[in-house]
Design a protein that fits this description.
The protein has three domains: 5-45 and 57-116 and 245-314, FAD/NAD(P)-binding domain; 130-242, FAD/NAD(P)-binding domain (3-Layer(bba) Sandwich); 334-445, FAD/NAD(P)-binding domain. The protein is globular. The strands form seven sheets. It has a five-stranded parallel β-sheet with strand order 3-2-1-7-19. Helix 1 (13-25) packs parallel to helix 8. With 447 residues, the protein is an alpha/beta fold. The protein contains twelve helices and 26 strands.
Length: 447
C-alpha cells in the first residue's frame, strides 16, 4: 500500500528513525510527527553524561535543529499530546498546549510512544529532592539540585543507575547505590562479570547496598535519607532508576494487541495487529532471535533500527526486523562494560545447556605502555556449540568486540569458527592472541 498521509506519534529515537525513513522512501507523502515535549529528538541516553560534565550542555543532545524538519518537509507538532487513536476511522485525536483539539487523518501510522518510568511503591517517594532521569527537563532539574546537595542515593543498579552514580561522584557528592538484587546490572551481565564492575566503581567512591530494597525516603518535606534494610543511608538528593515500562496506553485503548512482555505486539515488519499501524522503540515488543521468545529490549539503538523498518513499511516499501539481541555498552569512569545475546543465567532459564569460557587479558600487548585489563566471557550452547552470548569488562575497546560477537550470534557462528578467526595484531592496539578467541577456545574445551 502506498501511504500518502503518515502520522508518527513520538519524536525521539524510534519516531525520528521512522519519519526520516518514511521521507527517504516516499518523497511526496504528508508526514506529521507529534510529541508532547517542547524539544524534539534529543538523546535521552546522553543525559547522564551531561550531568557528569563529559558533555558540556543539554543543548548538545539535540539530534536535529527544527529547520531540518522543514527541509525534510516533516510537519513537527511539539507540545502536542495524542489523546486517542481511531483505527476504524484512520485518525488521531490530539491536543495542543493551549488546550485546542484537532483530528489528524492518516493512511499509515507509527506508534513510537517510548517508555515511562516505573512507579515506585517506596514510602515518601514524592518528597522534594527525589527525581527520575528520563526527560530533558528531568536532567535540568537534577543538575540544579546537585549544586545544592552534598550526598545522594541512587535506587537501582542498572545501567542508568550506575551512569547517574558516576555523574554524582564527578560532582563531588557522597553517593550510595541501592540494588534489590545481589549484583549490579543483573539483567545484563552475570554476577561474576558484575563483580568487576562493582569493584571498579567502588574505587571511585560509590557505596553499594545490594540484595536489599529501599523501604522509605526519609525526611519531612525535604529528603534527608533513605531507609534500607533497617539502616539509614544519608542523602539530600535521591534518584530512582528502577527501570521503565512501555507506554502503551494509546495502543491498548485503540484495541491494538499487547504482547506478553507488556509491549505492543508486532510482526517482522513492525506492524501491529491493525493493518497499516506500526509500532517501534521502547513501546514495541519484538522477538529474541536465539530463543524465538518475545522480547522487550528498551534500548536506544534498537529503537532507531525498529523505527527505520517501520518508516520504510509505512511509506509503502518493504523491510523486516530480525529481532533483538539486546546488545549494550557503556563507559563509566575509566572502564567500559558491554554485553550481547543471553547471559549464562538467562540461557539456563530457557533450558539451554551452556559451556562458558572466560579470559583475562590486556587491551594491548602487556608490555606496551597503558595496556589495560580486559575480561571477556563467551557463552556457547553446548550441543550445537553455537555462540549465544558474550560479556566484556575492560579499560577500553569493548564496543567493537561486542559488535563482533553480536554479528557472530546473528550468523549462527559456532565456537570453532570464532577460534579460527583471522584476527589482527599490533602491540600498541591489541594482543597477539585476541581475548575473544581465547575465551571461545576455553568454552569449546568445556563442550
Amino acid at each position: 500500500m502506498f501511504f500518502m498521509k503518515i502520522i508518527v506519534i513520538g519524536a525521539n529515537a524510534a519516531g525520528l528513525g521512522a519519519a526520516v525513513a518514511a521521507r527517504k522512501t516516499n518523497r511526496v507523502a504528508e508526514i506529521t510527527v507529534i510529541t508532547e515535549e517542547s524539544v524534539a529528538t534529543y538523546s535521552r541516553c546522553g543525559l547522564p553524561f551531561v550531568l557528569s560534565g563529559k558533555i558540556s550542555s543539554f543543548e548538545k543532545l539535540n539530534v536535529y535543529p527544527v529547520s531540518t524538519y522543514r527541509i525534510m518537509k516533516i510537519n513537527l507538532l511539539t507540545e502536542t499530546r495524542a489523546t486517542h487513536i481511531n483505527v476504524d476511522d484512520h485518525n488521531v485525536e490530539a491536543e495542543s498546549k493551549d488546550g485546542k483539539s484537532k483530528i489528524l487523518e492518516y493512511d499509515g501510522l507509527v506508534i513510537a510512544t517510548g517508555a515511562i518510568p516505573k512507579k515506585s511503591p517506596i514510602e515518601g517517594i514524592n518528597k522534594n529532592g527525589v527525581f527520575t532521569l528520563h526527560t530533558l527537563r528531568d536532567g535540568m532539574e537534577i543538575a540544579k539540585a546537585m549544586k545544592h546537595s552534598s550526598s545522594a542515593c541512587v535506587i537501582g543498579a542498572g545501567y542508568i543507575g550506575l551512569e547517574i552514580a558516576e555523574a554524582l561522584i564527578e560532582n563531588g557528592l557522597k553517593t550510595s547505590v541501592i540494588g534489590s538484587r545481589t549484583s549490579v546490572l543483573p539483567n545484563i551481565i552475570d554476577p561474576d562479570m558484575a563483580l568487576n564492575v562493582k569493584e571498579h566503581l567502588e574505587k571511585y567512591g560509590v557505596n553499594f547496598i545490594l540484595g536489599k530494597r529501599a523501604d522509605a525516603v526519609l525526611g519531612e518535606k525535604k529528603v534527608k535519607g533513605v531507609s534500607v534494610g533497617g539502616s539509614e543511608v544519608e542523602a539530600d538528593l535521591v534518584i530512582t532508576a528502577t527501570g521503565v515500562e512501555p507506554n502503551i496506553t494509546l495502543a491498548r485503548e485503540a484495541g491494538i494487541s499487547i504482547g506478553e512482555t507488556g509491549g505492543i505486539k508486532t510482526n517482522i515488519k513492525m506492524e501491529t495487529s491493525v493493518k497499516g499501524v506500526y509500532a517501534a522503540g521502547d513501546c514495541a515488543e519484538t522477538t529474541n532471535p536465539i530463543t524465538h521468545s518475545s522480547a522487550l529490549p528498551l534500548l536506544g539503538a534498537t529503537a532507531v533500527r525498529q523505527g527505520k523498518v517501520a518508516g520504510v513499511n509505512v511509506a509503502g516499501d518493504y523491510s523486516t526486523y530480525p529481532g533483538a539481541l539486546s546488545s549494550v555498552v557503556s563507559q563509566m569512569f575509566d572502564f567500559e562494560v558491554g554485553a550481547t545475546g543471553l547471559t549464562e543465567s538467562q540461557a539456563r532459564r530457557f533450558g539451554l545447556d551452556v559451556a562458558v569460557g572466560k579470559m583475562r587479558s590486556f587491551t594491548r600487548a602487556s608490555y606496551y605502555p597503558d595496556a589495560k585489563p580486559i575480561v571477556v566471557k563467551v557463552i556457547l550452547e553446548r550441543e550445537s556449540k553455537r555462540i549465544i552470548g558474550g560479556q566484556i569488562v575492560a579499560g577500553e575497546e569493548v564496543t567493537q568486540r561486542i559488535n563482533a560477537l553480536s554479528l557472530a550470534i546473528q550468523k549462527n557462528m559456532c565456537g570453532y569458527e570464532l577460534v579460527k578467526a583471522d584476527t589482527c595484531y599490533a602491540p600498541s592496539v591489541c594482543e597477539a592472541s585476541e581475548p575473544m578467541v581465547l575465551a571461545a577456545e576455553m568454552a569449546m574445551r568445556r563442550t
